[in-house]
């Protein structure tokens, strides 16, 4: 009987050389993405080792597990009250990823932003994790807890909730190596991979916006009516001047 490989949790794995490289890439992506997102209320759910809101300037910022404690599928926020929600690897660790995503959709306001980070099963790292037991590798390369959700599968979930993807990218193309020295030697692959096989990065970043049908159309209609009234008033005034003989 084959002995079961030992389990590695996410927190411990992030202290390894590949974990630190992944964390650095994710921090850089989040810092760039949230810096220009405005509003009043932002929430990070998952991965307390990552300070995803440090570059954001919203008035109220919370991180579950650090600033507040709650169940992921029962967030203590009113419906449509948050401007920004970050989910770094939260769906992978959730007992019910669908329930978590529905709860995030509930608390997110119309035109609010959702940012997700996840490990890509269709990558060298993902294939190493899947084929490890068949290759005689005892210890898994990635954390064993949780379920890795494919990029296209996740996009389908978001579409069902009217969460429109407005930005997406992949990162970390280095081979699944364990030592810092070897990871540094293969650093050049990150640039090549991003250009030649972009969807095969070890991690993906998705930014989506919550669209509510009719929200923008209502605003458009109001603006159109206001413009029409203004134009009618100008035309009437000009006609009045003409009848009076004014110049």
From TrEMBL:
**Mind listing the UniProt keywords for this protein, alphabetically?**
Methyltransferase, Transferase
Which principal EC class is assigned to this enzyme? Answer: transferase
List, in alphabetical order, the Gene Ontology terms for molecular function in this entry. methyltransferase activity
Gene3D superfamilies noted in UniProt: Vaccinia Virus protein VP39
- The yes or no answer to whether the keyword Methyltransferase is present is yes
Domain Methyltransferase type per the UniProt entry, residue ranges: 68-116
Query: Does the UniProt entry include the keyword Zinc?
Result: no
Swiss-Prot/TrEMBL GO biological process terms? methylation
**Enzyme Commission number:** 2.1.1.-
Q: Which Pfam families match?
A: Methyltransf_11 (PF08241)
Protein name as catalogued: Class I SAM-dependent methyltransferase
User: What is the species of this protein?
Assistant: Pelomonas baiyunensis
State the organism's lineage. Answer: Bacteria, Pseudomonadati, Pseudomonadota, Betaproteobacteria, Burkholderiales
């Amino acid at each position: 009987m084959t002995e079961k490989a030992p389990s590695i949790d996410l927190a411990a794995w992030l202290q390894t050389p590949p974990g630190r490289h992944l964390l650095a890439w994710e921090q850089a992506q989040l810092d760039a993405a949230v810096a220009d997102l405005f509003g009043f209320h932002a929430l990070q759910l998952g991965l307390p080792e990552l300070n995803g809101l440090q570059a954001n300037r919203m008035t109220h910022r919370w991180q579950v597990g650090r600033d507040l404690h709650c169940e992921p599928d029962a967030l203590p926020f009113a419906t449509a009250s948050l401007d920004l929600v970050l989910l770094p690897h939260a769906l992978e660790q959730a007992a019910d990823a669908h329930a978590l995503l529905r709860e995030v959709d509930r608390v997110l306001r119309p035109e609010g932003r959702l940012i997700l980070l996840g490990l890509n099963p269709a990558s060298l790292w993902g294939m190493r994790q899947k084929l490890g037991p068949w290759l005689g590798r005892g210890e898994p390369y990635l954390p064993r807890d949780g379920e890795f959700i494919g990029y296209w599968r996740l996009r389908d979930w978001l579409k069902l909730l009217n969460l429109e993807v407005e930005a997406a990218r992949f990162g970390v193309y280095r081979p699944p190596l364990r030592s810092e020295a070897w990871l540094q030697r293969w650093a050049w692959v990150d640039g090549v991979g991003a250009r030649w096989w972009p969807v095969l990065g070890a991690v993906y970043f998705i930014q989506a916006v919550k669209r509510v049908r009719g929200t923008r159309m209502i605003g458009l209609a109001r603006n159109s009516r206001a413009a029409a009234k203004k134009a009618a008033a100008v035309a009437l005034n000009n006609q009045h001047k003409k009848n009076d003989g004014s110049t």
